[in-house]
Amino acid sequence: MSLVQGYRGAKKIFEDAKANRYALPAVNxxxxxxxxxxxxxxxxxxxxxxxxxxxxxxAFFLGKSISNASQKASITGAVAAAKYIHEASPLYGIPxxxxxDHAAKKLLPWVDGMIAEGEKFYKTNGRPLFTSHMIDLSEExxxxxxxxxxxxxxxxxxxxxxxxxxxxxxxxxxxxxxxTGVESSKLYTQxxxxxxxxxxxxxxxxxxxxxxxxxxxxxxYKPGNVKLEPAILKNSQHYIQKKxxxxxxPVNFVFHGGSGSEVAKIREAIDYGVVKMNxxxxxxxxxxxxxxxxxxxxxxxxxxxLGNPTGDDAPNKKYYDGRVWIREGEISIKNRLAQAYxxxxxxxxxxxxxxxxxxLKNCASLGEHGLWANIKSVIVGANSQ
Length: 385
Known about the structure:
The strands form 5 sheets. A 5-stranded parallel beta sheet has the order 3-2-1-10-9. The protein has 2 domains: 7-347, TIM Barrel, CATH 3.20.20; 350-385, no CATH class. The chain is globular and about 75 Å long. It starts with 6 loop residues before the first helix and ends with a helix. It is built from 13 helices and 14 strands. Mean pLDDT is 87; it is low at 176-183 and 353-385. Helices cover 48% and strands 16% of the residues. It has 385 residues and is of the alpha/beta class.
């Protein structure tokens, strides 16, 4: 059965991440190839993975020829991809957190459609279709942002899901949202804003994570052009801890715009409660770079169906077969994700649910047979409950 986690599973993973100072990469996917590469990378590094869809990514998964009127293509594509991951995840043996990415105010109908499908899925299967949805109302007044998020948090909590929200603006351009000209002050969230969000959302439930801006920018830029200030996260944690008498690092933070970031800044952000880092631009490049290198290496065999350096009538099918060069893109994604796991201190962090409450660490170290095989059978049974 599916290894896609609900909030209860995600909570255990995030708690372990904070306790052991690591975070997980969140990969924006658009196809079965990018999904498979992400799952493969997680399996190889022996850690959970976060897979997510943007609005346009969901539509692309369904097919570019389909109209997206009323968000139908984005809804249907994201749901279809989610169901694919539910089916595929047990074969990779890796827990998956399945999220959706930025949904600005105009994209809330997309979220509404996915929640409606998620309610039907939950009623039938007793588990959530997605792990989380993200609401990005950072361009709206703070009070409207939080009031809207509270309404969605109530819905998601009933489905054993969590909400991701954004405070402050992530710079750069991503998925059609262009914040390249935003004033720099909006790139840095203040502790009072995080505290307000925390206090209000806790009135509904604890099922939320916060993407607080600390200079984050989507895309990749020359060193020095992006000024990350993880201390903003530290100050917010201390402010909330003191005001509400909480434990250390009470907030689960999300790092948006992780592509191209300095490792030292990534590790510092993890120290201050970051449990998830979005990586999209670098993954897009990795896929293309794998294909590009394959073409350059085999260029003489990719100019026609027949004819190459071995003979004028020699066939080239085994070179231009899509399964060959797409696979090179997948391998390149896998390698870039392995690098991300290393930078996030996230290698060998496997947590698999057993029953509805307990967790086992580093199960894969028990071997592929014997006890590990028995554990996997228990996991399958637990996830069917």
